[in-house]
Amino acid sequence: MSFYPVFLNLQGRHAVVVGGGAIAEQKVVGLLEAGARVTVVSPELTWKLEDLAATGAIAVRRRAYQRGDLEGAFLTIAATDDRSANADVWAEAEQRGILLNAVDDLPHCSFIAPAIHRAGDIAVAVSTAGKSPALAVRLRERIRALIGRADAEFLDLLGELRPAVAARVPDQKVRTRLWYEIVDSDAVEYVRRGDVAGARRRIDELVARAASGDVAESPPRGMVYLVGAGPGDPGLVTVRGLEVLRTADVVVYDRLVHPALVERAAPWAERIFVGKRADGHSIDQEKTNDVLIALARQGRVVARLKGGDPFVFGRGAEEGEALHAAGVPFEVIPGVSSAIAAPGAVGIPVTHRRFASAFAVAAGHECEGESDLDWNALARIPTLVFLMGLRGLSHITARLLAHGARPDTPAAVIASATLPEERAVVGTLATIEALAREARLESPATLVVGEVVTVRERLGKLAAAHAEVLIEA
Questions:
Q1: Contact present, 413 and 425 (Cβ < 8 Å)
Q2: Which positions are annotated as active-site residues?
Q3: pTM of the model
Q4: What CATH superfamily is the domain 14-113?
Q5: Which residue has the higher pLDDT, 147 or 348?
């Protein structure tokens, strides 16, 4: 079947979404981003849809679909598990001439929604909003270089096998997970080696396991994974962490987790934000613990994404204690800590054979006012790293100087480490606060103190490969 690719102008148009689960949530968010007026028809909603309803961003009919719900709609999406309901929606949509996409139900679709990556006005499959046809051509050529003949052959194979897989694995949720397991497996490597028969055998193994109900390699139900999301760059999550993220039912995340990493979760996964919002409101730790416990007790697999490493000032231990007390199984998946990654991103090693055989890490935002840290001991350690150290920078430098650290000790502050907007200032304990203030650095930021800071200069261009580094004159 051939589809004609288009980009619809939904600004101000009415769209109806039938269903209130995680997939419906994703569709609603996309429609709102395109400027549509959205009505959701469902007796139950995800937490995010409830928030959108509470703010008036969407209209809601809290019941099952009824004929007449599509009146006045330009476009409709049926995001339910009920094929008979899809058929009813399809009948009304066809009668009224309304475009309809029924998720994973091709016979009841008058259009399909492509997977789209957005970077400003660039969208793939490819559009530049009419601003630069030449750029669109060049981007298409780059995509073509990434997706070759083997991928096309693999797609043909998947399309050929789709009816048989649907017959062998009738449960839609199991089948959806199976398809992701297939495309994430090594089956495509067989095709790239020219062994299509080997790819068939590998896919058949995966299908047979799903059809038999063998879940030995699947995540246990009612499970929480405390996943380290890394220092910022979504590419710095571990392989194991990404594996869990792609299979979880729910993703619980905070503000230090990059949005692009959250988007790598499975399409069916519910996404719950528990960090500080733009209005300054944040969910307290006890509430977050309760959310994790409640989700697990519903039999769901939860990926709790935490910036950096869960056990390095991430309160992962507190969440683990709460889960254990509630009898909820959990697993800790370590992450790349900003304590090491932030200095390393600008070419500063935390240890060096000539300068530092030890380093200490402290929470910078806890250095204001009363502090139980041993500042005499800290002042003698070769390398010090203070996470979230920008707000308490004046307190940190004053205390170190008061306890014997030299004013000319090299120091650096790195803001938004590993991200494209990464910036850093380099100076001394006596000057670093003024330099950071003058550069108008913003959190999250990491302070590094010690002779290792000078190593950055000897690493030359490597040190400033992607950061703007401002050095004291």
A1: yes
A2: 254, 276
A3: 0.72
A4: NAD(P)-binding Rossmann-like Domain (3.40.50.720)
A5: 348
